[in-house]
Amino acid sequence: MSANNDGGEVKFETVKELDDEKFRRLAGVKRTTFEKMVLILEQSDKSKKIHGGRKNKLSIQNMLLMTLEYIREYRTYFHISQSYGVSESTAYKTVRWIEDTLIKHPDFALPGRKALLKSDVEYDVVLIDATETPIERPKKSKSTFIPGRRKSGGAIKGRIILN
What residues are paired with 159 via a beta bridge? Predict the structure, then answer.
């Protein structure tokens, strides 16, 4: 997939030719889900621009593909924007608009916290943060060293939260 400076329209044109399995591997969603998302976004875009507005530089399909790449691959807005031939701020605004639009739609809305608490399903949640982050400290010379009790080994240990 090569970048294209005229809006990156080659991206979706290339991707849509993939078979269903490769499409899902690339986009992270099934083709039918992708098409459903496109319909929702097209409706939202039409209602947003009912009183006029600037034409999108990217097609809805490429905007959605860009958002899915951002979410799935942890790429920066700068890298995404370079791949699609748009500015970094356009990439940011596009991803935010698509996320907000899909979250508000009932087909893609997740149940709220209250709905989860009211359900009969009991959740056992174990959250483990197993990262260890070293803390940089200035080097100590013998002249500035004051003898005393040493505390931890100078690292923040992982935390386990049980609910």
Answer: 129
Distances (CA, A) of 111 to 1, 40, 52, 116, 123: 36, 19, 34, 7, 15
Residues 72, 28 contacting (CB under 8 angstroms)? yes
The residue among 160, 11, 162, 159 whose CA lies nearest residue 85 is 11
The half-sphere exposure of 113 on its side-chain side, counting CA atoms within 13 A, is 0
**Where in 79-148 does DSSP place strands (E)?**
126-129, 133-134
141 vs 150: CA distance, rounded Å: 16
Could you give the dihedral angle defined by the CA atoms of residues 102, 104, 107 and 113, in that order, rounded to the nearest 10 degrees?
Answer: 120
Q: Residue 76 is which amino acid? A: T
Residue with tokens 């931890």: 152
List the structure tokens of 150: 């040493």
Q: What is the pLDDT along the chain (163 residues), one digit of tens a residue?
A: 444 444 445 688 888 888 989 889 888 889 999 999 999 999 998 888 878 778 888 999 999 999 999 988 888 999 999 999 999 999 999 999 999 999 888 887 766 667 666 777 676 766 666 655 666 666 666 665 556 655 555 555 566 666 5
